[in-house]
Amino acid sequence: MAKRLPEDIETLVSNLEDLDYYAILQLDSNADYIEIRTQFHECAQRYHPDRFLSAAFDEERAKIYSVYKRMTEAYRVLFDPELRVAYDEGLRGGALRLDPDLRARRLTGAARSLTSPFARLYLNAAKKKFDAEDWRGAAIDAELGLSIEDADALKDLHTAAVRRMVRSGESNHE
Amino acid sequence: MAQEHQFVLGIDLGTTNSACAVVQAGSASVVRRGDDRIIPSMIAARSDGSMAVGLEAKRERLLDPVNAIYSAKRLIGRRYSSPEVTKMIESVPYKIFEGRNESVMVGFGGRKLSAVEVSSYVLKYLRQMAEEALGQRIRKCVISVPANFTDSQRSATRISARLAGLEVIRIINEPTAAALAYGYIEDMDRRIAVYDFGGGTFDVTILEITQNVFEVLATSGEMFLGGDDLDEAILAAMLTQFEEEHGVDLHKHPVARARLRSVAEEVKIELSETSQVSRYIEGVLPDQGKNLNFSLTETALRDLIGPIVQRTVGVCEEAMKIAGIRREQIDEIVLVGGTTRIPIVRETVQAIFNRKPQTSINPMSVVAVGAAIQGAALVGLLVPMADGGVSAPSMNATAVLLDVTPRSLAVRTLGGNVDRIIERNSVVPVEQTRLFTTTVDNQKYVRIEVCQGESASFDENTKLGEVLLSGIRPAPRGEISVSVTFEINTDGLLEVRALDGQTGQEQTATMKVLGGMSPEDVEAMISKAESEGLLEEDGHGGSVVAR
Q1: B174 in catalytic set
Q2: B421·A152 Cβ contact <8 A
Q3: Could you say which of B309, B468, B483, B546 is the most buried, measured as most Cβ atoms within 10 Å of its Cβ?
């Protein structure tokens, strides 16, 4: 008699291509980032292939693996604010998965040096404001980024913004 | 027959020394043979043609340095032409040459072995040691590797274990294992610095643990910085004294030097416990009867080795910089490696991180203990798959470890730069696909070169291998696109696939891993080992591996 996988996994396997990222992680579409992370960790404890090392057959291992791989994909996208925005937009048009090209998006030099996607978000916002000569806004965003990650790219931008802010303050007084 | 308890051996296969541990009755213990818990990662050919492993091999090395292989970990899974192998060729007395598929071979005592086989002898020795201690056959293991090991080094280590008759149920990063040994998995949100100062290498890794996810924030190190350098510094003092007293420069006497080096190592180890050590070495040059009376105080040792230990400071600072954290943000410091037993090293660590390091577990076996704990956890949390009956996974106290990719994976682009397909610190498994187009008219094939590392220049990273996709339909450049998919599975192993979706007939090519072995080679090696009885019981548990 063939060994069987727990029913919830069989269900996930057969519905895999009909589930969006929120559904596969059993999340609400308005879940916040802490909920996303906690829920992913819960799923990992339950569905990680390590739990099924005793599965005798390659076929079962492959099923577990495919489910868990989709979960990590969902987590990677939903936990990254930029990717999540792109995904939510696509999802409204019926795309259950984010386009592979967007998923494998390239990061530029400064953004790459940051580990946290949230710090990266602040870095990008600060850069935009800096380019628009909003020195104060840029400095605030860089500082918010620094509260998440102590990165050189954020520090440099912060210093530059503060310097411009001081300089423009001086010229206003003249 | 009652089913025996299934032990999972936790193995720390080190550059200089190795150790193994198992979890028994809920607690982890280091496997020992007599008083020996730490086995030199060394094999040697005796003059009668037999093979010595471990301590025996270390003794053989004193007599015949050319025929003793050590530091095979520096060679395993690397390409022959890599800078690390080139450096090894310059610095070791044994022969290193190129095998098939750019792999590395060593020659000694009239035989040729791949680096993978050398390590398999050490692993087999550990396996037998554990079987003797536990009185049963051991088939499964968790084996640790440095956090910065590449895909090919991990695969090669796995093959070594297979050759030694062991199934690897998980490859674990050494710093993760060390943190597990201290039980940090139970804690929430911690940052840990693992300071690993071994016999031949120095590494520092900064880990962040959040709800059982072990994330490597940064790992830095020096490949050639370890306890051996400290021995060399003490040896240099001995050589100077000898020359002053006898007017003989021992640099041209390798056997005398090898002997003094092993005395230097003993002196170093003893000075961790006492304030002064004296040694009288008779007949340094046997035929001339010249003796050396050497003594060293702990204070003098500090002067000798201080500058070398100081080199670890910059490496730690670099790691914190890469991780983007200040030292105040690190919660614990874990010490790994025999060199961290030296008082000046501990003081240096404390000064770097402004915090006292953890010392309650022996730094020489902490990695093996952590690997054993992970092995027991993996077996313990398996989901029972009762026939017919469906059981949901039970949420027990032991947690699944989530690994992330330690290094980015990239392909070469025009101009020798890289295009990263998978960024470092992605939770595995991860699959990413990107489209590439042909760059010349009527291009017949696409060659995709793969590397691992963080540099923007391809050649500064570690090249892993390449995929060749041929039979492409002739077309103007840019018209044909090829999709390249990178997938890293839960074991951290990489698969690269290239797909030409436009010829109508899709074709996939899989990467050829350089410095690695083809599946056929591996199978051939395993069947050879089986036919020679290498994988079976020897009947005796001596430290000799007969051939």
Answers
A1: yes
A2: no
A3: B309
